[in-house]
Amino acid sequence: MRRAGTRGVLAAAAVMVVLMVGACSSGTDEIAGATTTLPPEEIGPPVVFVAVGGDETIGYGVADGLRDSWTQLVFREHLPRRSVHLNVASSGATVADALALQVPLALEVAPTLVTVWLAGADAAQATPVAAYERDLEQVVRQLQGDGSTRVVVAVGPPIVAGSGDTEPYDDAAERVAGRTGAGLVDLSAVDPAFGIDAHEVVASAVANALAAPR
Known about the structure:
By secondary structure, the protein is α/β, with parallel strands linked by helices. It has eight helices and seven strands. It has helices spanning 2-25, 65-68, 70-78, 95-108, 120-124, 129-144, 167-180, 196-211; strands spanning 28-31, 34-37, 48-53, 84-87, 113-117, 150-155, 183-186.
């Protein structure tokens, strides 16, 4: 009799497990008599967002760059849930550095969206504008690949102290965007102090540029 009772308890437990699995697989959650429909799965291929750049792109001006940088804000607040994000930017990177080191890393993950913001370090090092323009065009064209990757080039104020006048480089970036068909986002009105408010402004502007029709 004791063994039969145990088998009865185990059988009842098994039935409860089956019922719980069935409820989970039905796409609803029943708690205290209330039924909540789970959000539908997003359809379509994943969105792979990669950020290429220098100090402006690694969270300069905010205490927690992993949380509050404009790239993270774009990723968390402006892209679908199925998105992934890789930031390959590095402090002090010039456009030549990005071409040699960052672009190969970006291409490894087959990006669908890419931002490129490079000027401060080149201005600080007085890179010849013609060389900057040539290398930046190579960066953009390699990232665009067969044309399926959306690339947006950013131009803006000299964020990093000592970077000097970035205007000639921004003019070159605009020419590159025009020749390659890349998107262009003008951030020249952003506060050069580049605090959290500035990162939010940049995130919104970049997200709009990424979503704009080609």
